Amino acid sequence: MSDDLLPHAKLTNAAARKIIRAAAAKADEIGQPQCIAVVDDGGHLLTFMRMDGAFALSTNTAIAKAVTAAIYRAPTGEMADGPDIRLAVATQGKRINLPGGLPIIIDGVCVGGVGIGSGTGEQDRICANAGLASVEGAETF
């Protein structure tokens, strides 16, 4: 490999769909329909599902949680609040600090984020962790 290139792990579409399915199964189990988003490490949407009965307004919230978790490489809802105009501009206003966004970290590398919205913060986090648990080697929070 060239010294001018970095090796880069990428989340596959198959893994993104696996996360969506597992998170949706957990949402069914707890009786809370959810909006579920998976983004890559740069915060770009890979896949999304709005379950029947999930709040339509949670669509944007779920995506924003996934973007924030991927960019910060940290769970949402635990970050210090405060203005960060650079990130607000870079994410087109998609930075959000509500529970339910988790980074997708495999073998110490952040390859994306999952964002869940429509339930309580705890329900969102439970479903996000269920999604992460479906991917081999992914950390849960």
Gist?
With 141 residues, this protein is α+β, with helices and mostly antiparallel strands. It contains four helices and four strands. The chain has one domain (13-133): Haem-degrading domain (Beta-Lactamase).
Please tally the β strands and state the result.
4
CATH architecture title: 2-Layer Sandwich
CATH homology superfamily name: Haem-degrading domain
How many domains comprise the coordinates? 1
Task: Enumerate the spans where pLDDT stays under 50 for 5 or more consecutive residues.
Answer: none
Please outline the major beta sheet.
4 strands, antiparallel
Shape, please? globular
Radius of gyration, in Å, reads 14 Å
What brief labels describe this structure?
single chain; 141 residues; alpha+beta; Beta-Lactamase; four-stranded antiparallel beta sheet; 4 strands; 37% helix; 19% strand
Q: What do you see in this structure?
A:
This protein has 4 helices and 4 strands. The protein has helices at 13-30, 58-72, 85-90, 121-133; strands at 35-40, 45-50, 101-106, 109-117.
List the helices and strands and how they pair.
Elements: H1 13-30, E1 35-40, E2 45-50, H2 58-72, H3 85-90, E3 101-106, E4 109-117, H4 121-133
Antiparallel strand pairs: 1-2, 1-4, 3-4
